[in-house]
């Protein structure tokens, strides 16, 4: 069959890399893609929010299966738009409609959803510009630290953890009055800070049946030892040593099953990925957030561990036949280290030549923000490459990923040198 992936990041390169290995895949396209996806697929110069151009490409390329990578087109309703096109009635789509994507598109919606269905989460309260004064007073009596979340999409940067009441109040003013995150911050969810250790669980559902994919832990802060501002993700590890069988069973019983039951009860036919961001607190799972798609860079450690034909999995998801599938997972550990542009997550330059990629051995370099031009691979984003290594131990996977991260060169390259190191200590 002919497959189109929407997106241009490391997640989409990982999808393309995995799908290209399937005998079911005849022709593979990525829109708009990057220099990495061009190695395994044909890039189409179409923005992933250009719905009419995407619809035209689906017809022109005789696409059988569409996989939507990023959250933005899902939240904006690309699935609803394509479902309304009569000439695309046979198209298989992996990705929720706009109603389902609200799990990620609105922090307030997802919080209310969790409360309705008894899903464990931190206590919270939502404020708008009209209730700013009430919000400032509320913060004055709130235990520290305080978590503030922009309600809408903010490219992974809409969460602020304030250590003092003054910082929290200033942040609330900046978000509601100062429009720090634009429309995404027109509502702010103020949340209890949970003390524990974080991980992510990924669910693939066809609307009724589901499969739980390998779990992962990502590293959000720019600096080592989790310091500095949040980013889209600086690295990831799978499996997660502290997520034993008993804990993952709790996640399935207390989070996954009630989430899917809640979606069905609300009449949402959700066909796609649900990313569940969790905090393990005293052995119990608490939901920090939902995403309506796979995580990035977690995809770059989850997909390499899945041995099942990925195209077959995607077809079963779109056809409502996931109950017929078995997911086989490699016991190896995967570690990815993300190389980012100098200045990220603030201002950064692009167009830097990337060298030494050809020297990498026994690792996979997933391209995130790259561009091929005049025979050179150039930086084209904040997160540039995710270097994934697999090994029989966490220590060896960390070492291989870090060695490869040192090998690749571009002007201003930054990366964290402690991805997975905390888990080595945890395992000891």
From TrEMBL:
A GO MF annotation of the entry reads: ATP binding
For whether the record's keyword set contains Mitochondrion, the answer is no
According to the entry, every stretch annotated as the ATP-grasp domain falls at 111-319
Pathway(s) annotated for this protein in UniProt: Purine metabolism; IMP biosynthesis via de novo pathway; N(1)-(5-phospho-D-ribosyl)glycinamide from 5-phospho-alpha-D-ribose 1-diphosphate: step 2/2
GO biological process per UniProt: 'de novo' IMP biosynthetic process; purine nucleobase biosynthetic process
Q: Which residues cross the membrane?
A: none
Keywords for this protein: ATP-binding, Ligase, Nucleotide-binding, Purine biosynthesis
Q: What is the designated name of this protein?
A: Phosphoribosylamine--glycine ligase
Biological classification of the source: Bacteria, Pseudomonadati, Bacteroidota, Cytophagia, Cytophagales
């Amino acid at each position: 069959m002919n497959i189109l992936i929407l997106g241009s990041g490391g997640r989409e390169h990982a999808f393309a890399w995995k799908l290209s290995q399937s005998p079911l895949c005849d022709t593979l396209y990525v829109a708009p893609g990057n220099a990495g996806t061009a190695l395994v697929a044909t890039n189409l110069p179409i923005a992933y929010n250009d719905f009419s151009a995407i619809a035209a490409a689906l017809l022109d390329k005789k696409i059988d299966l569409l996989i939507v990578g990023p959250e933005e087109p899902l939240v904006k309703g690309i699935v609803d738009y394509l479902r309304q096109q009569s000439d695309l009635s046979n198209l298989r789509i992996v990705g929720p409609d706009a109603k389902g994507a609200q799990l990620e598109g609105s922090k307030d919606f997802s919080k209310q959803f969790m409360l309705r269905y008894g899903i464990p989460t931190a206590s919270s309260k939502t404020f708008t510009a009209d209730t700013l004064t009430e919000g400032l007073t509320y913060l004055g009596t709130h235990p520290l630290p305080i978590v503030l979340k922009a309600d809408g999409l903010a490219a992974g940067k809409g969460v602020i953890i304030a250590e003092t009441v003054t910082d929290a109040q200033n942040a609330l003013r900046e978000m509601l009055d100062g429009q720090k995150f634009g429309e995404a911050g027109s509502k702010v969810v103020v949340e209890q800070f949970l003390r524990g250790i974080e991980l992510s669980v990924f669910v693939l559902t066809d609307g009724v049946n589901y499969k739980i994919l390998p779990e992962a832990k990502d590293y959000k802060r720019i600096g080592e030892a989790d310091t500095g501002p949040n980013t889209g993700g600086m690295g990831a590890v799978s499996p997660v040593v502290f997520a034993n069988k008993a804990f993952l069973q709790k996640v399935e019983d207390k989070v996954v099953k009630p989430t899917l039951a809640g979606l069905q009860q609300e009449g949402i036919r959700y066909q796609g990925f649900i990313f569940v961001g969790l905090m393990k607190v005293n052995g119990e799972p608490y939901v920090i957030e939902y995403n309506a798609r796979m995580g990035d860079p977690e995809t770059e450690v989850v997909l390499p561990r899945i041995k099942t034909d990925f195209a077959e999995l995607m077809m079963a998801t779109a056809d409502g036949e996931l109950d017929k599938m078995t997911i086989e997972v490699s016991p190896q550990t995967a570690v990815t280290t993300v190389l980012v542009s100098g200045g990220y997550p603030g201002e950064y330059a692009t167009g830097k030549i990337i060298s030494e990629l050809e020297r990498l051995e026994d690792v996979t370099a997933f391209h995130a923000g790259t561009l091929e031009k005049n025979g050179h691979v150039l930086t084209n984003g904040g997160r540039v490459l995710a270097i994934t290594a697999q090994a029989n131990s966490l220590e060896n996977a960390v070492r291989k990923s870090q060695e490869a991260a040192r090998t690749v060169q571009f002007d201003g390259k930054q990366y964290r040198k402690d991805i997975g190191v905390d888990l080595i200590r945890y395992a000891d």
